[in-house]
Amino acid sequence: MRHHFHCTDGWELILDLRGRSMRADGDIGKQAEAVARRLMAEVLISADWSRWLVCVHNHLGEQIAIVPFPVPRRISVPAVPLPVTVSAHCNAYC
What we know:
Order of helices and strands: EEEHEEH
Radius of gyration: 22 Å
Helix content: 10-25%
């Protein structure tokens, strides 16, 4: 059975014209998340993905699932205190 994984934020729409062949017991949610992650990785501009959804349609064109884009993984950097220096010029610029 062929499924189409269209992506949208309500303004922009990216159509999956080819679709993907999936078994009836295939995990639609995992495939939708994979589609979202691939799009997030391939887009070269910084985008706010928090409003994006993957709308899954079956071979009849019926919408069968809506899956939100995953929250992008952020690299956590441990907080390192910066050295504090006191300067006589600080008041002039602060």
